[in-house]
Amino acid sequence: MKNKQVVASILLGFSLSACTGRGTQHAGSIQETPARVAGLVLQEGEGERRVRRNAGKGPFILKVDRQNGGSPDLVMGYEDIAPGAEIQPHTHLVADEILFIHRGSGVAKLGGRESPVRAGATVYIPRNVQVSVRNTGSEPLGIAFIFSKPGFEELMRDNSVLEGQPVTPISAAEREQIRKRHSWHTVFPQ
To answer: What pLDDT is stored for residue 27 in this prediction?
Structure first.
C-alpha cells in the first residue's frame, strides 16, 4: 500500500507542475499532441507493449504519453530488466526522470555515485545527470519510469517494435542514426 501511495504522489506532483499547452517544441519544430482524453486506468501489463530490437534487452510498456492518453507533458512506462542486464549509461538533456523500483534488486549509478536499489526504492534523475541501472539480483528488476517532458519514448519506439511484430536486430549504423536523431534530448557516452 505504501508503494502505491508513493507512486500516486509522484504522478500527482508531475501532473500539478505540468504545462497544459497542446504542442511540444523540440529540435526546431512543434509536434501537435492528440486531444486529451478523460484519463486512463491501466492494469498491470496493459499499455503499448513493445519489444526492443537490441540484443539482450527485454520488452517494455509505454503507459502514458502523447499517443497513450494524450498527455502533452508526462511520459510513464514500465519494464522488467533481466538478471545481469542493465540500462546503459545515458543522460537526458531536457527532462527529469524518476525510476520507481517495483520488484527485484540492483545497482543504480547516478552521476558519480553508486547505490543499491530494491523494491520500494525511488531514483530521481535530474536532467543533465548520467544514469545507469544494473540488475544484480536473481529475478527481473521491475521499474516504473516517469519523465517530466516527452522525447525519450520516441527513442524507445525507434529501438523497438510492437509486441507480436517481427524483431529485426539493429545494425550499428542504424543505432547511430537513431541516437543522432534523438540527441536533442538523450546522449550516450562515446
So the answer is: 40
pTM: 0.79
The pair phi, psi for residue 13, each rounded to 5°, is -60, -45
For the chain (length 190 residues), average pLDDT per consecutive 10? 46 38 36 64 95 84 96 96 94 97 97 96 98 96 97 95 93 94 92
CATH architecture label of 2-19+43-187: Sandwich (2.60)
